Amino acid sequence: MFFRKNYRGNSFTGRSLNDLTLTFCITHKNRESYLKKTLLQNLNDNQANPNVDFVLVDFQDDLEIVDWVSSEFKSFLGSGKLKAFHSNDLPEWHSPKAKNCAHALAEGDILVNLDCDNYTGKNGGDFIIKHFSEATNEILFWQYSKKKLDGSYGRIALTKNTFYELGGYDESFLPMGFQDGDLIKRAERFGTQIIKNQDPLYNMAIKHEKFIPHNMTWKRMNEHNQRISKKNIKEGLLVANSGDFGVIAKNVKRID
Question: What is the per-residue pLDDT across 165-207, written as a single tens digit (0 to 9) for each?
């Protein structure tokens, strides 16, 4: 059992704004139409800051995205602005496992979940870094627009230290539903301040239908995961996966 509810000072106190690094963490499987609209735009929009980079993990069964990234993003791959990987370890989509894999491969001081249908906005990385640098204590920066089903709900930024302390997203959950809400609630009970930001310049997403699972509706999965989350938090179980998350990151193949 792990339970803590106390003030947590900003781990970046005393560090220069120009010294902080940030990684946008992107996962992908069978959503190439969205990724092909957002990836180049997001890279270009954050080109000015060398301390902002992107990790992309492609879980698609074929190599369409691997070939596309290798062909079209040579300069970004060569500079390290984009670190791209392919994995065969997710035959069926599982959001917590996929997101944990990308976060485990990220190196930034700040880790941002960026769904492949989301846009960062112009200098979106700088926008987030500024908020973390100015915070007086440890924060979770949540860029949800509050527009239902617009695709921005999962735009969550945490320090790498806090994400690791929380054990990432809960991989015991069913493939979709409430993984983001659970992470936010565990972080809050952990003593992390939740900062909500709805600036439309930095939380745009491509609106589309939700992922449809094979064996259960999204609604039922969401309700199931929410019940697990509520029980765990009530019992003070704030660290997911016994602290060992993103195991599939050990078997990815780097795209270059």
Answer: 999 999 999 999 999 999 999 999 999 999 999 999 999 999 8
Tell me the pairing of strands 82-86 and 22-28.
Answer: unpaired
Beta strands 193-196 and 139-142, pairing class: parallel
- May I ask the CATH architecture of the domain 17-255? Alpha-Beta Complex (3.90)
Regarding pTM above 0.85, the answer is: yes
Q: Find the Cα–Cα–Cα–Cα dihedral 58, 59, 64, 66, rounded to 10°.
A: 40
Walk across the sheet containing 52-58 and list its strands: 193-196, 139-142, 156-159, 110-113, 22-28, 52-58, 82-86, 253-255
Q: Is 86 helix (H, G, I), strand (E, B) or coil?
A: strand
Within 8 A by CB and 6+ apart from 90, the residues are 29, 59, 97, 98, 101, 248
Whole-Å CA distances, 208 to 149, 150, 201: 8, 8, 19
Q: What is the mean pLDDT of residues 162-166?
A: 97
CA distances from 136 to 14, 130, 198 (A): 11, 12, 20
H/E stretch holding 168: none
Residue 16 is predicted with a pLDDT of 77
